[in-house]
Design brief:
Blueprint: E1 18-28, E2 34-44, E3 48-52, H1 59-67, E4 74-79, E5 89-94, H2 106-116, H3 121-134, H4 150-162, E6 166-172, H5 180-197, E7 200-205, H6 208-214, E8 217-222, E9 227-233, H7 242-245, H8 248-265
Parallel strand pairs: 3-7, 3-8, 5-6, 6-7
Antiparallel strand pairs: 1-2, 1-4, 8-9
Helix pairs in contact: 2-3, 2-4, 3-4, 6-8
Length: 270
C-alpha cells in the first residue's frame, strides 16, 4: 500500500475537489419514519469528516446511502472520484460491530472481501499480511476471533476494510463499545493511517470529544427528521496527540461543537 500526500497538510479545503455529494437527499422508510430530510452535504478528497448527533438523527442512514447500501427516497448521492487508485477499490466500510466469522482465522476474515472478488488465498497473501501489520496484528493471523479482545476484533474489521486499498473509508461508530483507553489508542492508530494514506474518511460518532480529536470537519445532525444542523471546521493542527486533549484550543473547540449539538437536539437551528 503506497502512501499518498497526507490530507493533514491541506490548508484550503475549497481548493480540494468534492468527491461525494448528497444533493437534497431524503430517506423515508416503509413504516413512515423519515430518517433524513433534504440533506445537502459535500465531502472533499482527503477530508476526515465526522457525522455527530444523537440516536435517530440519520447518521448511519447517511453512511449507508453514501455506500450504496440503500437508495434515497428523494435526491441524489453523487460520486466524483478524480483518480481512482491503482489496484484499489472505491470503498471500505467498518461497521459498529466487528461482524467477524467466528469459525475462521483472522487471516481468512481479512481475506474475505478479496476472496469475494475472486482473489485466491495465495494471491491475497501479501495484501492480507500487510493490512494486518498496519493494524498491529501481524502475529495473530492464525488466531480465531474468540481468542481476541474487543479492540483486537475491531482491528481485524479495520484490516478487512483496508485490504481492498479503498479510496474512501466509512466507519459507523467503530469504537463505541470499547473502553476509553482502547478507544483512544485506536483513535490515534486510525489518524496515523489516514495521515499516511490520505483517504477520505467519514466517521459516525456520538462523542463530541472523539469527533473533535479526529476530524478536520464535524457535521452536526439534528433528528426528527434527520438533517444537517451545522457544519464546522476543526481548526486544530495535525498530527494530533494526547497533548492536544489537554490544550485550551481543544477544550474550546469541544465547547463550540457541544453547543451546536445541544442546539440541534433542542430542535432549533444554530
Amino acid at each position: 500500500m503506497s502512501a499518498s500526500t497526507s490530507s493533514a497538510k491541506i490548508q484550503d479545503p475549497n481548493e480540494v475537489p468534492v468527491i461525494i455529494s448528497l444533493d437534497g437527499v431524503s430517506m423515508r422508510f416503509d413504516n413512515g419514519t423519515t430518517a433524513l430530510d433534504h440533506v445537502h452535504l459535500e465531502l472533499r478528497e482527503g477530508e476526515f469528516v465526522s457525522l455527530l448527533g444523537a440516536s435517530g438523527c440519520g447518521k448511519s442512514t447517511a453512511l449507508r446511502l453514501i455506500a450504496g447500501l440503500e437508495e434515497p427516497t428523494a435526491g441524489t448521492v453523487k460520486w466524483q472520484v478524480p483518480e481512482p487508485r491503482e489496484k484499489g477499490h472505491l470503498l471500505g466500510y467498518v461497521f459498529q460491530e466487528p461482524t467477524l466469522m467466528p469459525w475462521a482465522s483472522v487471516f481468512s476474515n481479512v481475506w474475505l472481501p478479496l476472496r469475494l472478488k475472486g482473489v485466491s488465498k495465495v494471491d491475497a497473501e501479501d495484501d492480507v499480511r500487510e493490512a494486518l501489520e498496519l493494524v498491529g496484528l501481524k502475529d495473530h493471523a492464525d488466531s480465531k476471533p474468540n481468542e481476541l479482545s474487543g479492540g483486537m476484533k475491531m482491528r481485524v474489521s479495520i484490516a478487512r476494510a483496508l485490504v481492498t486499498r479503498p479510496h474512501v473509508l466509512l466507519l459507523d461508530e467503530p469504537f463505541a463499545a470499547l473502553d476509553e483507553i482502547t478507544r483512544a489508542k485506536l483513535n490515534d492508530d486510525l489518524l496515523g493511517l489516514w495521515e499516511r494514506f490520505g483517504w477520505t474518511i467519514v466517521f459516525v460518532t456520538h462523542s463530541v470529544f472523539e469527533a473533535v480529536y479526529l476530524s478536520s470537519r464535524v457535521v452536526v445532525m439534528a433528528a426528527s427528521p434527520g438533517r444537517v444542523a451545522t457544519d464546522l471546521p476543526v481548526e486544530l493542527p495535525y498530527p494530533r496527540s494526547e497533548k492536544l486533549r489537554l490544550s485550551p484550543d481543544y477544550t474550546h473547540r469541544c465547547g463550540l461543537i457541544s453547543d451546536a449539538l445541544r442546539t440541534a437536539m433542542s430542535g432549533n437551528q444554530p
